[in-house]
Amino acid sequence: MELSLVSQCATIANTLSIPSLALTGGEPTLRSDLSSIIVSIQDRYNGKISLTTNGAHLSELSPQIITPLHTVNLSMSSFNKEIYKKYQDVDPIKALTALNHFPALNKNLNVVVVKDNYQELNDIISYCVNHSLTLVLMFELKAYSEFDIIIQQYVLKEINKLGQVVFQFGATPSLAVNVSDSCRIIVKHPKLSALIQRSICKECTQSINCYERVCAARVYPNGVVSPCLNQVITFTNDTLLEKLKNTYALFNVNESLKIHIDNPYNIIFSPL
Q1: Model's pTM, two decimal places?
Q2: Cα–Cα nearest to 34, from 101, 106, 102, 111
Q3: Signal sequence span per UniProt (predicted)?
């Protein structure tokens, strides 16, 4: 996505008083101009800015970012070399070290729990407790086998040992527990996401396959704007601002909004 389009979206986000903007992927740190993108957004936008990354080039980006981001979300699969090479092939210790030094007010570790890594859960939790990280545990959207259910039950059982588990209802419902003053464990699951059924989703034939269940105005490089992952509805005419306003008109008026920038293809505006 061109820097000019990202800058335009940042300006619009500021104009519409959208409180949060997130850069996601793909893998955003693969872009050589990512630092320029972040600086451009910071110059035009006064809200919270976050970055989601696998940490592959986070250490290279860090010295170029002067103003701290609000949040950095580091996606990791495992500490085990045989496992992480199967997924992201990014050394987790190198990535976590880079995260530790990156200028951000909040730092989260995102882990998708699968059969390959669920036995590392306690080691991952211990790392987050010792390094003051919030841990976000997620599950794949698919037909679950009996073993998948056993894994999920195991995760919930282990989380329940850490303290009182509370249900958080928001754009993405979750379970959460405060392990310490500086570490929280958050569990997100497709079954929890399915609790949300916004007005534009009620008649959507693709909603059953939608993981996020979050209204999102995605701006594509060709200028098309869509309010959902499956592009059931699209806006192709008018200015970017008008297309975004038309998209927001489909959302419930009481829903707060944030922006995701999905590198390199989409810019995503979605409810908090």
Answers
A1: 0.83
A2: 102
A3: none
